[in-house]
## 1
Amino acid sequence: MGASTKPGYDIANKSREIIKELIDDQTKDLTYEERDIVERVVHSTADPEYAKLVKISPDFVDTALKCFDDGKDILTDINMVKSGITRYEGDVMCYIRDERAVKLAKKEEITRSAAAMRVAAEDGFSGVVAIGNAPTALFEVMDLVEEGIMDAKAVVGVPVGFVGAADSKEALSLTEIPHVITTGPKGGTPIAVAVINSLLNIRK
């Protein structure tokens, strides 16, 4: 390891040590994998409150890891989330700029994010969905799964915002889909990316 890279690793390791101390009480009942997810989320946001906000369904970790081991696709709501997932050998997909999604959104008068989920389902998507920004995309995924149109095996549902975000995440928590959510309005791209990258790092 070069001299220029070692300080970065030292800082990251020190940050993780500080985070472990700050959130130990909130994570002591979690599995190793679940703790790693929460720690990575807190590390990416510098916000220990996420230790209380992140909720992980009991079947999420095993389901998502199996998907990655099987080479299943990852579907994101926006390209920023896609860009943050850099260590996966399978396909990381985003349809937000797909011309079919653009046309469908106009035709059906829905958001392009929701339309993108429909197009992904039409293309036969099967795997893990990571949504960090668009509540409409999360609602659409749940509807598509319920209708048997989309094979979303696990969902990281952490959209951010004051309109629809909290409601969409609460709705996801009441489904049988293996999931990770953040309660309330907080969430966003860094959270979605942190959850996925945590699991991909665990697979090493």
Note: The two ends are 19 Å apart (CA to CA).
## 2
Amino acid sequence: MIETKGFPKGFLWGGATAANQCEGGYDEGGRGLANVDVVPIGEDRYPIITGKQKHIEFDEDHFYPAKEAIDMYHRYKEDIALFGEMGFKTYRLSIAWSRIFPKGDEKEPNEEGLKFYENLFKECHKHNIEPLVTITHFDVPMHLIEEYGGWRNRKMVDFYENLVTVLFNRYKGLVKYWLTFNEINVILHAPFMGAGLYFKEGENEMQVKYQAAHHELVASAIATRIAHEVDPENKVGCMLAAGQYYPLTPKPEDVFEAMQKDRENYFFIDVQSRGEYPAYALKELEREGVEIKMEPEDAEILKANTVDFISFSYYASRIASAEPVKEDATDGNLMGTVKNPYLEASEWGWQIDPLGMRITMNAMYDRYQKPLFIVENGLGAVDTPDENGYVEDDYRIKYLAEHIEAMRDAINKDGVEVWGYTTWGCIDLVSASTGEMKKRYGFIYVDRDNYGKGTLERSKKKSFYWYKNVIESNGKDLSLDVEVK
């Protein structure tokens, strides 16, 4: 039994999902089409999400898992009740932009979409769950991509400002924790999914990605300002796909490469947390011939509206080498990396490194001195249910226990301030990177396969009962043995 000192009083335990990976109902309630809807499962998925292959409508040759996902659009009351049974203090979810503004550039919002989320938030409060809302989790209305080119266009800042103004006013008193953009650094790795970008032949992709990123950074700062104006109780965070880079060897060139790789990711949070472009980024963009067009007021907007807290996803650490090491490559949250010979990996090649989470937390807290919120952490695995839908997922329990213990050490031994922890995919959902259902993260099993077959029935895994104990004890009891009731 792992006995630990508990977590701070009021620590926000919970789970996380994204609208496009769980809601479904893609054409219901007045919702418009979004980039995430038209991304299929299969070999074409990667070239599409990276913007290399233009694919902006459905066809007969592919299966599109986000269309129905796990149908939370119709089942959210059942699902939130299960989260309440586990004792969730918070539930991180995202809003589908095209539910609120179906095309994205309308003046007036879609009332049916607004009402859906209002009802969902009220359902959370009924179970004493505080919503933690991601405004944009890889969602871009398709009309904004076709008409304006996605986030490459400055007009997107205005459309986003219109969206957040509606959200903050409508949900005042129902939501106080907000994230502006999910994994904002993913724009560099999956630009169509992250920002609705696809590229023309011969186009300077780096120029387009960093210009789009600038627009998102300005939009995030404007959202932070409006959130605080509408309700001083609002807390606004940024969100990073995190994971510290280790040098492959002590060779100084490898150490420098690891530093450079970390900076590539931290650049976004440097701007959102400190309010200005760091010197290293300006020099790198200059070397690459990237010229970011900025409006005169941008510098002031960024400086005056920094985030209240830093949130991030952590699944794995990464390795950097100054020399290419292709034969030892592995996967990890849309970012390939060199294999670490000292670590085991998940079935999808993501390297399991609990201490790496503590290292990452310390690096971020040292850098920003702002509260942290871990909003994604979990193990994607193939689960085999019995005839009742029960899964004996001891591998998931072990993974989470070790990471929660590392988080506890960062808090109690290192002095890192952490507000909360939400596991990724608290209920099985569609994988963002692969589009699969068989890559499962949840405490709750959903009967659905990669191609939409199944009853969509929900059932509790062993980890459901384990996490309930963790929350009840405020992280003091991480025992791997659990009584299944």
Note: The chain has one domain: 12-472.
## 3
Amino acid sequence: MLIHERYIRREVALATLLVLAAFLGLFGFFDLINELDNLGRGNYGLQHAVMYTVLTMPGRVYETLPIAVLIGALYSLTTLSRHSEITVLRASGMSTGRILRLLARIGLPFVLLTFVTGEFIAPPAERAAQELKLSARSQLLTGEFRSGFWVKDGHDFVNIGSVTPEGVLRKIRIFEFNDSRELLSVLEAASGGYQAPAGWVLTNVIRTDFSESGAKVSKLDTLVWDSDLSPDVMSVMLVVPERMSAWKLWHYIRHLSDNRQETGRYEIALWKKFSYPLACFVMLALALPFAYMHNRNAAVSIKVFTGVMIGVLFHMLNGLFSNLGAINSWPPYAAALTPGFLFLFAAAAMLWWEDRR
């Protein structure tokens, strides 16, 4: 490895890691403040809030790493430009193409880190965080079986087949017991949704009551289910595409296809699983034109602030195009790749303009 490549790699990597640490500290602080509202619920204490916040950090790393790469590269390259080091490299015959290839080699570890975090670290850590919160708040939730999820609600046991991304429960069975652990009734419902302040409203309900005289079956169109289970508890079972690994997404898409259900949102999430880490390359390319600008045109602080705004815009566009793609039935690859291509085009246009000058 050449000396100048090792030097630029070190500067960009250190600045990126510093920005990432600042992001994690900021998000961690606000997440911890948000968790303080849960203190005193069951056995949920400060130590549980701290551990919950720590377990959600891998998800924060996955979300913010491309933006940290942009800001870190902007700061380090602009600093090198201010010291005329970029100018020396270009004067010695290093073309824009060679600098971009150098930045691509620098960005490869960040791409791999983003992918590994989002695929193997963040999903199980997020699930562990939710289970920790439920356990500390004295609410029991089992793992996923072929029959769905099982939740303990007081003396009752609840079986839920699945939960849609909109928070609708499917294939609900509620086994009601008394204090002596005797089965009082079995309630089956096709679906249910949470409607504040009433609670869970179940539809297409079949209720079987047991007594000494026998069993009595009744059917209801709707029934309000009075339960201590909140949407926060149910969110542990919620199938959120962005929090699933690519492998689980693939299998879930096949499951939905076999049952002739809508797969658009999950296909977009699957494409984003592979395209989002590549955003690190795009962010590095986007930072280079700012390094070419002469210092009298923009100070380092202004460029860093611009990088923050670009990062926020990229994050917003990612969510916007995912939602638009799901609503308008766009091709999944178009909804997932369009924000990256827009920013790549912007980087290419800015580089062309700077070279032309």
Note: The CA atoms of residues 153 and 228 lie 7 Å apart.
## 4
Amino acid sequence: MSARPVLRFAPSPNGELHLGHALSALIGFDMAEKLGGRFLLRIEDIDTTRCREEYITHIYEDLAWLGITWEEPVLRQSLHFTTYSAASDWLLKLGLLYPCFATRAEIGEATELFPDAVDPDGAPLYPGLHKHLPKEEIAVRLARNEPFALRLHMDRAIDALEGITGTRHVTFTELDEHGNPQRIEINPADWGDAVIVRKDTPTSYHLAVVVDDGRQGVTHVTRGRDLYAATSLHRLLQTILGLPEPVYHHHRLLTDTDGRKLSKSARDTGLRELRAAGIDALQIRHRLGLPIPATPAQENHP
């Protein structure tokens, strides 16, 4: 871990940044400033089919407009697939991953039989298809180049967790909006056999984010409340992979009048549009309910 706190903002370049992203970026940047820490920008572009170079350029422009600065070089996940593969290979050697050849249609049909079995995000819990395939069948399917994902064998992972920590739950420190810490205990088994390596790319968000936070020495993870539940899965992977534990702060989410979280897919008003309309960074802070940073003159005023 760094002697100084390290924070990061890690957007995916699959659409334009909106006010929700501005809130997250500014909260992380402000915390880094308050703690005298470092601030990193990470481009989470593992989804190479949806991510576009123009969106990366727009991210740089939007953050600079908000008055945010970051360290160079910027880590782009698409350039580090071998690093994530090394982590998944280690989990494979430990017997904690298994190949799942099931299609979305097969999984959807199977989950209809268990409508009440859902993960913390409310999605149907994986029903265990292909979890116990004979080695011979796996070999045949691999030889046929059938696409597959690698899923976490949660039962074995929890056993491994207990062997390391003596408990079958994980803990983490959560900072509230005033910076007060609280120790949280949470059960990663609620996620079931989560996807750790996707069919279409050699990692998943869950694996890449913990690997990158570890190797970049991130000490404080600031992100939206919608990722709070995922912290149990991330802490499980961090513990098994021997990665350091950061402190977490899951901030409030911005929603529309119907209570829906702002999103790229809904094409909520982007920061570029606001900038083009003549809105400035101070107005954005005011709209988000964030404090206005003091000018050098104000800081020196008695």
Note: The chain is about 40% helix and 15% strand.
